[in-house]
Design a protein that fits this description.
By secondary structure, this protein is an alpha+beta fold. The chain is built from one helix and four strands; from the N terminus they run E-E-E-E-H. A hairpin with a 5-residue loop joins strand 3 and strand 4.
Amino acid sequence: MPLPITITDVPLGNEIVRIELVELHNSPMFSAWRHFKNDAGQWQPGNHGLTFSIKRLPDVVAAFENALNRAREEGLLP
């Protein structure tokens, strides 16, 4: 399967966080990177984000699920 594969773009004000499966140094990776619109109106990667081995994705998803559950328990989210 050719990479990158864009999973979704999450709106963040006038920017987005692009969730992708990418390849880096011949290894599949998961990426969540902030993008901004350049002068041509196209989304361009910014200086902030995270990229890690696809093997770590289940651990990261579990951590985000834990954060979501905790935020709900604390009344920060409905």
